[in-house]
Write a structure and sequence with these properties.
Layout (H helix, E strand, L loop, with lengths): L4 E2 L18 E9 L9 E8 L5 E5 L3 E7 L1 E9 L5 E4 L8 E4 L8 E2 L6 E10 L5 E6 L1 E2 L2 E8 L6 E11 L2 E3 L5 E2 L5 E9 L4 E8 L18 E8 L4 E7 L1 H6 L10 E5 L2 E5 L14
Parallel strand pairs: 1-7, 2-11, 9-17
Antiparallel strand pairs: 2-5, 3-4, 3-6, 6-10, 7-8, 8-15, 10-12, 13-18, 14-17, 14-19, 15-16, 17-18, 19-20, 21-22
Length: 286
């Protein structure tokens, strides 16, 4: 079992309001609304004093956090603490904090699939000894779970199918939820399952498409592509690809999280019937 990795030896309990009796402190209570998302075992809250100061990290239950903090303004990050293969970097700075997934190959191009990561950010809270804070935040998913149901023609002659998702981000910003630009354009191997009826299901989790700068020429803009490789019983192979750059953009919390694309090539037809924002426990056929 992989251990959860935190590159953040700097985060400590800076000082307690109980110990520093001369410091005016206020009560902060933040409840979490998970909606339809699966509730994790616990959460990590990080409070960032403004304009500067040592971050304060708390391990809490999944339903929220109650604590006393010195008066002042804070930014807050919170995320589930039961991830195993996600690396957290730069947690000493609110704006720079990120989650990333380690590569599975020396080339640093092929990534593992990130565990489902849930949380949110709060741009500002003001702690006042005379005015206790009681608020609720909506938990969102930082990770997209992509599910595709594919029907392949000539299914009786197909021996196996593999699929890769190319042109994806390796990291995501915890403060704004945007994929982070890196020099490496990564890919991930998707899980595939050939059913007895000839249909194929593929799925994977990802932080999203590789982001590009606004001034990047269209000809140099990386695409997010599903590459499907089929091996037939006579050992011949065929490959079909589908540019899903726009499909990825449509997978948000603000719509039905569904899109449909179709691709035909050399007699091999792939019909992707649904793309959904899912959960770690979601059925492939949900």
């Amino acid at each position: 079992m992989k251990k959860q990795i935190f590159i953040s030896v700097f985060i400590i309990f800076s000082f307690s309001c109980v110990k520093e009796k001369k410091t005016l402190c206020g009560s902060v209570s933040i409840a979490t609304d998970w909606g339809d998302l699966p509730i994790s075992a616990g959460m990590i809250f990080i409070f960032y004093p403004e304009p500067e100061g040592t971050p304060i990290q708390l391990d809490t239950q999944a339903d929220g956090c109650s604590y006393r903090l010195p008066e002042g303004k804070y930014k807050v990050l919170l995320f589930n603490n039961d991830t195993r293969n996600i690396l957290f970097k730069h947690l000493d700075k609110y704006e720079l904090a990120e989650a990333s997934v380690a590569p599975t190959a020396k080339s640093a191009q092929t990534l593992g699939q990130p565990d489902m990561l849930y949380g949110c950010s709060i741009d500002e809270i003001t702690v006042d000894a005379q005015n206790p804070i009681q608020s609720q935040v909506k938990i969102k998913s930082y990770v997209k779970k992509i599910v595709a149901n594919i029907n392949l023609s000539q299914d009786g002659d197909i021996k196996n199918v593999s699929a890769r998702l190319k042109g994806i981000a390796q990291s995501i910003s915890l403060s704004d939820g945007r994929p982070i630009t890196t020099e490496t354009i990564a890919d991930v191997e998707m899980q595939s399952d050939i059913r007895t009826d000839g249909n194929v299901s593929i799925s994977c989790t990802t932080f999203g498409s590789t982001p590009v700068a606004a001034d990047t020429p269209p000809s140099q803009t990386p695409q997010t592509v599903v590459e499907i490789n089929a091996t037939y019983k006579d050992d011949t192979q065929r490959t079909v690809t589908a540019d899903i750059s726009e499909v990825i953009k449509q997978i948000t919390d603000n719509n039905k999280n569904e899109a449909t694309i179709e691709l035909k090539d050399m007699g091999l037809m792939a019909i992707i019937t649904s793309w959904k924002l899912g959960t770690a426990s979601a059925s492939i056929n949900k």
